[in-house]
Amino acid sequence: MKFFTIRSLRDLCLLLCGGLLLASCATTPNVPVGWSEQHVAFRETEGWKKQVFLNPPVYDQLTKARSSVIISLADQRGYLLLDGKDVAMDFPVATGTKNYRSPTGSFKVIEMKEKYASNLYGRFVDIESGKTVDSDADSRKPTPAGTKFVGASMPNWMRLTNTGVGLHIGYVPGYPASHGCIRVVRSAMAKLYPVCKLGTPVEIHDTWSPAGTKVLGSQL
Predict the structure, then answer these.
(1) Domain segments of the chain as ranges
(2) CB 78, CB 69: distance < 8 Å
(3) N or C: which end of the chain has fewer CB within 10 A?
């Protein structure tokens, strides 16, 4: 009769475990845990980065007390969450450029205004003709003679810092393009603004993924 040595039993276990691991890898789809097939399919469609993904069953449960927002700088996406875990909406954003990088960290909404204009960035407009002289003006710089400063419109403003960073409706080209604010596409803000309040938590990360959360929805 042949006996296994301790070494051979160990080797056998390693061989069996390795076989099971390979079999598992062969049958497990390459999908982040918690992502629904619908969400994965959405992200595989052409032009998805410019679209909004809504999860109606989760969104319908939202209240101003149960909402929070996460912004991912790496993929220029925003996520509206229910109770900090379930994704209600996945939407495109435009954050600060290299020279005006959006700050990372944990914030809270400290001011909300449906109609708002920046007191820092905007346009220098000729007073007589009304024509724009400088479309990328900074109010802290000298105002050209015969012009006035007109602040950039920031509808549905939600301030995060005392230095002028916040979320608002704006142009979202698919890459960082702001002076530090988080620009949100209009269709997403129409869903986001009503469920936020003063004190709503907003986190800005270099990168973030909703893996491990429940996502089920449809494209807006």
Answers:
(1) 32-116+154-219, 122-153
(2) yes
(3) N
Element (H, E) at 190: helix 186-192
Q: Which amino acid is residue 162, in one-letter code?
A: N
What pLDDT was estimated at residue 211? 67
| Coarse DSSP helix, strand, coil percentages of the chain, rounded to the nearest 5 percent | 20, 35, 45
Per-residue confidence (pLDDT) for residue 112, from 0 to 100: 97
DSSP codes, 116-153: -EEEEEEEEEETTT--EEEEEEETTSPPPTTEEEEEEE
DSSP helix/strand/coil, 111: strand
* DSSP letter (8 states) at residue 96: B
Is CATH 2.40.440.10 correct for 32-116+154-219?
Answer: yes
State residue 20's pLDDT score.
38
**Mean pLDDT by 10-residue block, N- to C-terminus, for the chain (220 residues)?**
42 43 37 57 84 90 96 94 89 95 97 84 78 76 82 87 94 94 96 98 90 59
